[in-house]
Structure formats: structure tokens, C-alpha cells
Predict the 3D structure of the following.
Amino acid sequence: MENAKLSKTSEPNLVAADGKHSRHAIIALSIAAVFFLFEFVTRVSPSTATETISADLGLSRAGLGVFSSLFFWIYAPMQIGVGLLLDRYGARRFVVPAIALCAGGMMLIGVAPSAFVAALGRILTGFGASFAFVGALYVVNHWFAPKRFALLSGLVNAVGMLGTAVGVIWLTSLVQSAGWRPSFIGIGVFGLALSVIALFAFRDAPSAGDSDTHPSPIGPLKQVIKSPQVWLVACVGALVYMPINVYGGLWGNEELTADHGLSSVAAETAVSMVFWGMALGSVLWGAVSDALGHRKWIVFGCAILAMLAWSVVIFLPLTQLWIVSVLLFLGGLFCGGQMLTFAMAKEGQDQSTVGTVTAFVNMIGIGAALVFQPLVGVLLDLTDNDHALALSVVPLCLVLAAGLTVVLREPDQPHLRAKRRAK
């Protein structure tokens, strides 16, 4: 049993080093990253036409928040199952149909005759999307060396954020010119094409799947949930990521048009800067962390600086597009430190539980959207659309994240220790 575990742990280094499977590795990582990009566009798609969708489907603001959050109601609890399935069987047999399901859900929303049918489509989209991010990080972990995990996982996130930054602006313009229904159907068609490509090109790494180390299907989960560090890291990651889901993913466009006097397209352009910043931050903080050999204090500093940036946007009556855009870029940049929480959680576990621990951290992070997206909608209804008050939860969550980070342990890994000693 121990020999099996050692081989599972060391093989990714060999795959990355000998170059024998480099082509399959790059293709798998590329498809997984594009799937995450596609998934994220579907995730934030309701924010591109909040008023039109609400009017068409007969939803209040609170109702729209619930509709949008249905994605996360299925996405979040699916994470544990996704992690266990990937750890046991590998990624290919699940990622390919998941792309098709995510695409099908978007198309169903586009043709939905009622809010009920649209809700079913949103749930289907969330179900398929639940395999995207964890699947991508699973590919990174099993195709590449452990010392590259923080940087490459950040790169995956950057692809999703950059694609979303461009895609959401394009989608907002498309919605205004062609209507939200044809636009959503078009997104679904793109996803179906990606699923066909994945069917023929996506391959699992030789180290993927592990039915020997954990004979019990839930063995990795038992190991993960016993770790207080994993729980704490997951909570920190959820709080730092909360502005991306709540402001960038749904309510930012409306807040900027209502409180800052921006047009819908200008507001979406400004909101897109959140994703540009997150893209850069995901890669930057991973590279800085690997270079310095530290994780914890980088996350702490990012949480504090993100809180300052978001507070200025939310509480001050800024009207200049460029100032708002710069601040939102900085907010996203510092929220990019959240990606280090996946490395911190993974580096405390053995190779056979990577899918499960990654999925667990992601579940807690996405689960926060189940609370905060509808909560902001309810607060808006209760306060007669006082966006500053409703969105004050954003800086509050970042302050709490910084406080919790203080009690985290720094991951004790050989490649990190070597960097700290060198400094």
C-alpha cells in the first residue's frame, strides 16, 4: 500500500520532467482551462442583463439573486462528489460530459418559457460547471511537478478571468443588440463544440485515479475533513473570493449605474477590470509565493489591501470611469491571493486526496455565494436600493479573512523551506 502511495506522489514529477507526455499534458491543461473560462462566463451571465431577465421572467431583485444563486446551490454540494470521483477514476470520463451539460443548461435558459424552466436550466448549468475548476487543478496536479502547482493553478484561474473580462463585455453588447435569449443560446453552442473537442483530445495523466491507496470511496474525504487547517484555509479562501462572486458576478453592474452614473456598457467595462485584476493576481501571487517560500502573509496582505480598494468603490460617490476601473482592477488583483489557499490546503495532504481537498476548498468558497448573492438582493429590497449598505458585506468579509489568516499555519513543504532558507 505504501509503495502505491509513493508512486502516486512521485509520478507527476516524472511526467513533467521527461517530456514524454508533454503534448497530452498541454492539451489537457488547455481544454480544462477553456472549460473553466466557459463555466465562468455561464456563471456570471445573469449580470449582463439583470433588468431584462427580471422583467422577462417576472423576477424581483431578490428573485433574480435566488435565480443566479441556483447555479451555486448545485455547484457547491457537488464539489465533494466531484473531488472523490476525480481522485478515484481520473478526470476525462467526467469532464467531457460535464462540458456538454453546462452548455445544455445555458441553451435551456435561452429558450425557457417561464422562470421555472429557466431555473432548471440554471441548475443544469451549475451541475456541469461543478467539474470545471477542480478538474483543471486536478490536471495541473497530475500532469505537472508539485513545485509548479501554485503558478499553474493561478494561470488556469487567469485564463478564466481574462476570458470573462473580455467575454462579459462582449456578451453585454451582444445582449443589447441581439437579446439575452439568442445570446445565451449562442454561449451554449460554443460549449457543445468544446465538448466535442474534449471528447477526442482530452487525456488523463498516467497517475490519474487511485483506487488502491483508499479502498473506501470516501477515504480521501475522511482524511480531509479531519484537518482543522483545511477548514480554516477554506473559510479564508471563501471570504477573499466573495467580492468576485457577489460584486463581479452579479451586483456590480447595477451598483455602478445606480451610484456612479455609468452607462450599462461602461459599468460592465469597469466590472470587467475585476477579472483582469484577478487574472494578474492569480499568477502574480503564485509566482511571488513560490519565490519567497511564503503563503500565509501574502494572503493576509492581499485581504487588507483588497478591503481598502473595495471600500473606496462602494462608499465613495466616484463618477470617473477610469478611477473606478483602476480601483476595481486593484480589488481583483488583491483578491487573486485567494488562489494560494488551494496550494496551502493541498500541501498538507498526500497525492491521493488532491482532488478531494481542492474540491472541498472550492465548495466552501462557492458556497458563500449561496448566502451573499441573495443576501445583497434582499438588502437592496429592504433598503430601497441602498447599494452601499447592501454591499458593505464585501469589505466586512475581507476584514474577517485577514483576521482568520493570522492563525493559519505556513505550509511546511521542502520546496518552500528551501526558498525561505535561501532568503
